[in-house]
Structure formats: structure tokens, C-alpha cells
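Exercise 7. Predict the joint structure of the components listed below.
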Amino acid sequence: NAGVMQNPRHLVRRRGQEARLRCSPMKGHSHVYWYRQLPEEGLKFMVYLQKENIIDESGMPKERFSAEFPKEGPSILRIQQVVRGDSAAYFCASSPIQGAGEAFFGQGTRLTVV
Amino acid sequence: AQSVTQLGSHVSVSEGALVLLRCNYSSSVPPYLFWYVQYPNQGLQLLLKYTSAATLVKGINGFEAEFKKSETSFHLTKPSAHMSDAAEYFCAVSDLVQNAGNMLTFGGGTRLMVKP
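Solution:
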């Protein structure tokens, strides 16, 4: 049973380009969470999605960032017009149910904006 | 609102010495608490979790943590450090409010260094 798969592992974008980060949850998991880890900091919650629904996006920046989890295919975190401050590691986690239990993390996508 | 404070961003111990990583939390509801470990350029791996059962929780790799409600603490310990324990450790709290799912609030992390 494969774990949470994120790709790409490393992504380099020039300022102003778009970045697309993909996350395939563990088999049977319908809840996906995105977190951002800035250098030398802990992880900060960004968004919580279920299939075709955004449940909580209280941690998402108001502009340039969007996320989706379609009925088919991976969850996508999209960052438009990237800036240097977007450079970070972006982690996806998934869980089978809401509430108690744990979330399983992917290995992250490290975005570098040059 | 929840928060997690990890005292000490860097902790250094000698191999074979006791490991103690501190975590204090604030939560308006009974929390679920977690410790994760992150090796360089890797994702997070769950060490252990507290989910309102036994207050002393045993995890992988010889780690354990004790939930102390009166102190709002969930410190991580290991009796004898090994070189392979060198990593970043994160304490996290889960919000059990309806529809919060497993959203986690993380502490800032503690980098554990183990000296030979």
C-alpha cells in the first residue's frame, strides 16, 4: 500500500511563473491537508479538502493560492505568479476519516523561486 | 484557538544520554497530541500520539511521552540517545471541533543533535 505521494519532490520556478504541486493520498483516504514549512520553521496549516470540497482554507493566503481535490485524480495546490517568499517545503497529508486518528504525510515538494 | 510551544529550538545530548524534548499546548477542548520526527529532506513520520487513553504513551524507536493535563504538557523522552535519533522533532495538537478533521497545529520544532 503506497503512502502519500507528492510530486515533484523539487520544483524551481522563476518569479511570476505558476507552480503546481500534486498530492495523491493513500488508498482509501478521502481527506487531504496541505501544510507549508518555511525555512527553520514548523509546519503551518493551509487547507483541508475532501473530494470535490474545500472544508477549511483558513490558512491559505488570500491571493495567488488555490487548491482542489477533484473526484478523480490527485489534489493540486496551485500558486500563481510565484514570489521569492513562496520558497518553502509544501507537505500534503491524508487521513481516512474525520476526527480522531492520525494524518499520514508525504515527503513534500520543495519549491524554490529564483 | 490552539497553540503549541516547544521549548528549545536546538537540543544537544551525548550518545547514551537521556533525551527530553519539551512541548506545552493550549487548547479549549480535550486535545489529541502527536509527536512527529523529520529527517533531513524527508516528510514527517509519526512517533506517537495521545488520544485520551493512557496518559503515558509509548511510540516507535524507544520514545515515549506523558500527557499531563495539569501542566498542559506532552514532553517526549527517550532513556538513551542513539546517533540515528538526530533529527527535527515536532509536537502537534489536533482540533476536535466538528469538521476540523485531523488538522494539526504544530510547534516550531526542536532539532536534536547527538554527540558521539
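Discussion. The longest strand of chain B covers residues 87-94.
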